Amino acid sequence: MKITVIGAGNVGATVAQRIVDKELANEVVLVDIVEGLPQGKGLDMYESAPIEGTDTQVVGSNNYADTSGSQVVVITAGIARKPGMTREQLQETNAGIVKGVTESVVAHSPQAILIVVSNPLDVMTYVAYKTSGFEKHRVIGMAGILDTARYRTFIAMELGVSVEDVQALVLGGHGDSMVPLVRYTTIAGVPLSEFLDQPTIDKLVKRTRDGGIEIVNFLKTGSAYYAPSAAAVEMVEAIVKDKKRILPCAAYLQGEYGIRDTYIGVPVKLGKKGIEQIVEVTLTAEEKAALTTSAEEVKSNIAKLKL
Ligand code: APR
Fold first, then answer.
1. Which of 115, 141, 167 is the C-terminal boundary of a domain?
2. pLDDT tens, the chain, 307 aa long
3. What b/e string do you get for 182-214 counting C-beta neighbours within 10 Å, with b at 16 or more?
4. 260 in helix, strand or coil?
5. Would you call 174 a catalytic residue per the annotation?
6. I need a surface site. Which of 145, 178, 221, 233 has the fewest CB within 10 A?
């Protein structure tokens, strides 16, 4: 198993480290455009392997030839948000970066499954899909797991219960229009509405929507990376272990949920082939309308692309 991570910045380096710590591959290749950065971080990480007790080798490189034959490639290259910026303001710059990166990745790993993390997420996953020419099940975006993890954390904080017992699902685009499914949120199987009143739930939903900017405002020089990297690695693990996990991911829809020709967050089954099924859950008219609005927003941003 060979896994490549493109971008050796905050998200990329942490993704690579988590893959090493979990020993999910024989080899991790960390690539960046900056000379020395992936080599330095990669070697440092490899030197942690004897202490962690893992045999995953780490190779840092500026050369895509070293990524040849990767089974999974995680794309984190691009610029991150600073305070006052929306994810959409990254679009033009990151679209160029993701397009170039995808071309180089595909040339050396034509059979790979691509996991896109660069923002604005749904649009960048579309860019990777179109550029790669891969089947839709092999190009997947990471966002729903992160948004859901934030929502679960805020609920656990509010109730003083284990995060493990909060089960939830956040659909839609990775942005203000995301759709947390409150109706399907449970604490150990008991509906959330048994524990919290509507104004409190609304407050937690809003905090989830603003979860990314909350971190950006603290950090000031960049955006979140611990939870985003954990989310991307949960996807990697589901694929390399063929776990058939049901996880919210950005998927290319062709009529599911009444949505067509765009990437948007929905529950999918993840296994060794990538997306093995798009799971269609029953939505109320209101939830469906919110998902459609979110998809329209992503589509209108895709329309602005000069690919
Ligand atoms: N090829 C390879 N690497 C590149 C390229 C490129 N063409 N362009 C930029 N990079 C690298 C940068 O050199 C940098 O090391 O991508 C890395 C990005 O790292 P950070 O600036 O630390 O950003 P990070 O927090 O990792 O976020 C990366 O993921 O969550 C999203 O919104 C976030 O789009 C952003 C991306």
1. 141
2. 999 999 999 999 999 999 999 999 999 999 999 999 999 999 999 999 999 999 999 999 999 999 999 999 999 999 988 898 888 889 999 999 999 999 999 999 999 999 999 999 999 999 999 999 999 999 999 999 999 999 999 999 999 999 999 999 999 999 889 999 999 999 999 999 999 999 999 999 999 999 999 999 999 999 999 999 999 999 999 999 999 999 999 999 999 999 999 999 999 999 999 999 999 999 999 999 999 999 999 999 999 997 7
3. bbbbbbeeeebeebbeeeebeebbebbbebbbe
4. strand
5. yes
6. 221
Query: What is the CA(142)–ligand 1 centre distance, in A?
Result: 15
Tally of structural domains, the chain: 2
Query: 212 in ligand 1 pocket by Cβ < 6 Å?
Result: no
Inside any domain, residue 256: yes
Backbone angles phi, psi at 196, to 5 degrees: -130, 150
How large is the angle between the packed helices 144-159 and 198-209, nearest 10 degrees?
140
Give the pTM. 0.98
Examine residue 163 and state whether it is found in any structural domain, yes or no. yes
Please tell me whether residues 243 and 273 are part of one structural domain: yes
Please choose, from the candidates 304, 277, 229, the residue with its C-alpha nearest in 3D space to the C-alpha of residue 75.
Answer: 229
- Which of 117, 141, 165 is the C-terminal boundary of a domain? 141
Amino acid at 222: G
Range of the domain at 98: 2-141
Please tell me if the CB atom of residue 222 comes closer than 6 angstroms to any atom of ligand 1.
Answer: yes
- 105 and 133 inside one domain: yes
Residues 113 and 162 in one domain: no
Phi and psi dihedrals of 73, rounded to 5? Answer: -130, 125
- Which of 41, 81, 150, 174 is flagged as catalytic? 174
307 within a domain of the structure (yes/no): no
Residue nearest to atom 10 of ligand 1 (CA): 77
Closest residue (by CA) to atom 14 of ligand 1? 9
**Residue 272 within any structural domain of the chain:** yes
Say how far apart CA 29 and CA 21 lie, in whole Å. Answer: 15
